[in-house]
Amino acid sequence: MLSILEILKFSEFNDFKVVAGKEHLDQIIRWAHPIDVPDAAEWLRGGELVLTTAIALPEDKVGREKMIEALFERNTAGLLISVGGFIDSTPLEMVKIADLLGFPIIEAPWRIPLIDIAEPINSNIISHQYTLLQETSIIYQSLSKLVLSGGGIPDLASELATLLDRSITIESPSFELLAFAENGSIDNVRKQSVDEKKTPISLIDALEHRGDLLRIKMAQKPLEIKPIPELGMTMSRVVAPIMVGGELYGYMWLVGNDRPLSDLDHMAIETAATIAGFILLREQTIMDTENRLKGDFITLLVQNGFNNRASLLQQAAQFNLDLRNPHAILVIGSNIPLVDKKATIVIQITKIASEANTFISVFDNNIIAVVEDDQGTITGLVKKFRGISDNLWVGLGETVNVPEELGKSYEQAHEAMLIAKRLRIDKGYMQFDKLGYLHILFHSKPEHLENNCYLSKIRNMKELQKEDKGADLYITLETYLNNAGNAQKTARDLYVHRSTLLYRLARIEELFGLSLDDHEIRVNLHIALVTEKLTTEI
Fold first, then answer.
1. Quick one: which of 351, 356, 360, 430 has its CA closest to 395?
2. Is the domain of 279 the same as that of 308?
3. Looking at the structure, do residues 515 and 459 belong to the same domain, yes or no?
4. Segment 457-508, tens digit of pLDDT
5. Strand, coil or helix: what is 512?
6. Model pTM?
7. Residue 268 has pLDDT above 70, yes or no
């Protein structure tokens, strides 16, 4: 990158004089372009240092001011005027408007032809671009070898960090950490991103407020992101989208350090982002193939669609499953579809299962895990799965000793998951062998329920809740019944005064025509409330 300040250091330009925009001499020059025609701005693309003899300057003051404004709006780097020929000095009105806009104007002596000014500037730019292309080519060759040797995303981050002497982060489209390589100093925000394995929410909010988040999401090329010191982001970044066939696969971040960011940083990260796309596409293809094979296998397993145990055991061994040992099925469900392999929740579940050497696959819009009979392993997995999101529900089937019974364990786990989901069990986890009467209620037939007066009252109140007329009453009754008629605990759980609770309970008794002091009535209402939830799909 060649700035105006740098060209003023050329020995042949010692007599040049800056007359406006002195605080903005860091403007980068894309090309030095002599123009001596009216409406010069119409001939420009941005980034040029415009050279003029002033022969075509507008004759009136307003016209000269508009000329500077037009050059500024075209993102021109600056204006160099040859003085001592057609004009002796830059008109004062041009200097004033340029200072106001922060637009550099330089005066050059008439004795130096414009061609002799343009030539060293453009030669320097071409030389810089050639060197840059050579350096970028070396980086491309190094990264290409890495891909051909089977290197993954972490290897790419490490290699690029070494080549550029910068820290590199690669993230998913939702800004979750895929790989990180530290080289040199980093700021607190990057350290936090690595520790939390994702970009902090506070930074995402700040980027959105500043308008950078939209720029990042719309970007097709690398962008430079300025620091946000108040959040601990004290270093600039370059971020490049990782695109494959028009689809976003993630982002690559280059963290600035004590050295200013350069053209090489921009070009190198753009090259690396392209290669990252190839790696991610390759990994996605491998994963899709593996998932398809896993899906076929789990379908065979849970539907008991095999007739040769030896063949099944051989297939299972390919997935590191020894079905000669006792196993059980875990079913993980959610309020969001889990068939999308790129969904954040699915990626996180897959990672946890991989670390625990546990077989998982998607089946019927749920995730199925086949786990050995180890209560510690199962408890640990459930805790980690639930730690991902409160919208995950996990059911566990009974342990079976032969693979032919895994289909039964799946049906049990699926039922336990649905019950946990419909009842909104706090821990989000239910074991089939602990369902008790919930199993019977779950399988209640409509004809057995249609004449139940208690269920009818619950359903009527539920309709009132939908109309927003009885929401408080429904929640109050549910909490009261869950607390076995303990008014003090119910008032505390609802964050209401005891007198408010008693008023609501009286309203419910009036609505039902029943006394909530009667233990049998409370039991029947509680069973009816639970039955309504269990028999209603979410």
1. 430
2. no
3. yes
4. 888 887 776 655 556 888 898 899 999 889 999 999 999 999 999 998 998 8
5. helix
6. 0.58
7. yes
CA–CA dist 104, 19 (Å, integer)? 8
pLDDT of residue 368: 92
Cα separation of 484 and 459, whole Å? 20
| Residue spans of alpha helices (H) in 103-196 | 114-148, 153-164, 188-196
Type and span of the H or E element at 406: helix 406-422
Residue 137 in domain: no
Cα separation, 262 vs 83, in Å, equals 34
Give a yes or no: residue 134 inside a domain.
no
Joined together, the tokens standing for residue 70 give: 């037009």
pLDDT attached to residue 1: 67
CB of 198 within 8 A of CB of 171?
A: yes
The distance of Cα 75 from the centroid of its chain, to the nearest Å, equals: 33
Same domain, residue pair 464 and 421: no
Which of 123, 141, 158 is where one domain is finished? Answer: 123
Select, from the ranges 36-40, 128-132, 276-280, the one with the highest average predicted confidence (pLDDT): 276-280
Q: Structure tokens of 436?
A: 């008790």
Range of the domain at 76: 4-123
In a domain, 418, yes or no: yes
**Total domains present in the chain:** 4
- The answer as to whether 60 is a domain residue is yes
In terms of domains, do 424 and 313 share one? yes
Q: What is the DSSP letter of 12?
A: G
Residues 412 and 454 in one domain: no
pLDDT at 436: 92
Pairing mode, if any, of strands 237-244 and 247-255?
antiparallel
Same domain assignment for residues 423 and 458: no
Token digits of residue 210: 């500043």
What is the CB-side half-sphere exposure of residue 109 using CA atoms within 13 A?
7
Last residue of a domain, one of 226, 255, 283: 283
Encode 81-119 in three state secondary structure: EEECCCCCCCCHHHHHHHHHHCCCEEEEECCCCHHHHHH
Strands 31-34, 78-83: pairing is unpaired
More confident residue, 355 or 467: 355
